[in-house]
Amino acid sequence: MHVKDAMHVNVTCVAPTTLVPEIAKKMQAFDIGAVPVEEENRLVGMITDRDITCRAVANGLDLSTVTARDIMTPEVTYCREDEDIEDAAHIMEEREIRRLPVLNEDDRVVGMVSLGDLTHATSQELSGEVIKAVTAHHKGD
């Protein structure tokens, strides 16, 4: 199975200049925890609900002025829509990430693969391995 057969489509993206409250409202409205950041239709970062909490709120930043660029993760791991879903699963396992943006051949964001998508698209054994790897660093929490 290819990534494009398992991914979520119609991904909500934001510009680097988007203010954090607007991003949080999008996350709430679409019930999502991560938003790709695009500039000129190119993936330049990723912002998660954890980024908002740990990099903005916990540091006492003025949320009315903080933008996606201020708190996003600029080095984004991604996969391609025509890759095998098992390859995407291994990327998530190795990098210990829960969500993976999906790019097409033109380097445009066309989807997102989550842990939940993997549980439906891969073997129970593989999805279990990925979940175990991604959550391993939370054992002591």
Give the number of domains. Answer: 1
Quaternary state of the chains? single chain
Number of helices: 6
Look at the helices and sheets and give the structural class: alpha+beta
Strand content: 15-25%
Please name the CATH topology. CBS-domain
Q: Which CATH class is shown?
A: Alpha Beta
Average predicted confidence as pLDDT: 88
What do these coordinates show?
- The protein has 141 residues and is an alpha+beta fold.
- It has a single domain, classed as CBS-domain (Roll), CATH 3.10.580.
- Helix content is 38%, strand content 18%.
- It has helices at 20-30, 49-57, 68-71, 85-95, 115-121, 124-135; strands spanning 34-39, 42-48, 79-80, 99-103, 109-114.
- A 3-stranded mixed β-sheet has the order 3-4-5. Strands 1-2 form a two-stranded antiparallel ribbon.
- Strand 3, helix 4 (85-95) and strand 4 (99-103) form a beta-alpha-beta unit.
- Helix 4 (85-95) runs parallel beside helix 6.
- The chain is globular, with a radius of gyration of 15 Å.
- The mean pLDDT is 88.
